[in-house]
Amino acid sequence: MYVILPDEDAQVAFGAALGSALAGRGQVHLEGELGAGKTTLTRGILRAYGHQGAVKSPTYTLVEPYRLGDVEVNHFDLYRLGDPEELEFIGARDLLDDDTLSLVEWPSRGAGWLPAPDLALELEVLDAGRGVTLSARSAYGEAVLARLETPAGLADSQPE
């Protein structure tokens, strides 16, 4: 699936729709260059579970946990990760539980240590807005994409 998100509001709205489809669990890997909108999309996903506060990328802490009602979301940013084994030292294995939602920015930095994603998202900067390619990598990921209701005005697009 490929969607063009013309502005920040569209990114947040799409993230909220994706958050609803994820139903509070799964492994989501977010790739894209600096400034592509990984954290903005994460903010939208968190909004689906009622979070209204700011969302900062946990670049230095590596993970920011959110407890939103019955939903546990762990937002990882592995940009500054020196070695994937560092994830073991911060207790990430316990955080990457099947009953939680894990959003992982820069997952390639944790290659060989992270579990396989249910969904892989590749964000790209466009002349106007962002493009996002969503790929299911598991049966659960396929079910999420089947449930995903793209917000009005953001119909599925094809990359140019």
Order of helices and strands: EHEHEEHHEEEHE
Strand content: 25-35%
Class by SSE composition: alpha/beta
Strand tally? 8
| Global shape | globular
CATH class categorisation? Alpha Beta
Tell me the radius of gyration: 15 Å
What characterizes the major β-sheet?
8 strands, mixed
The total number of structural domains is 1
Assign the CATH superfamily.
Answer: P-loop containing nucleotide triphosphate hydrolases
**What's the quaternary structure here?**
single chain
- Helicity, as a percent range: 25-40%
For the record, the CATH architecture stands as 3-Layer(aba) Sandwich
**Alpha-carbon distance between the two ends:** 13 Å
The number of helical segments is 5
Strand order of the largest sheet: 3-4-5-2-6-7-1-8
The CATH topology comes to Rossmann fold
Low-confidence stretches: none
Name the average pLDDT: 89
Keywords: ATP-binding, Cytoplasm, Magnesium, Metal-binding, Nucleotide-binding, Transferase, tRNA processing
Protein name: tRNA threonylcarbamoyladenosine biosynthesis protein TsaE
GO molecular function: ATP binding; metal ion binding; transferase activity
Family: Belongs to the TsaE family.
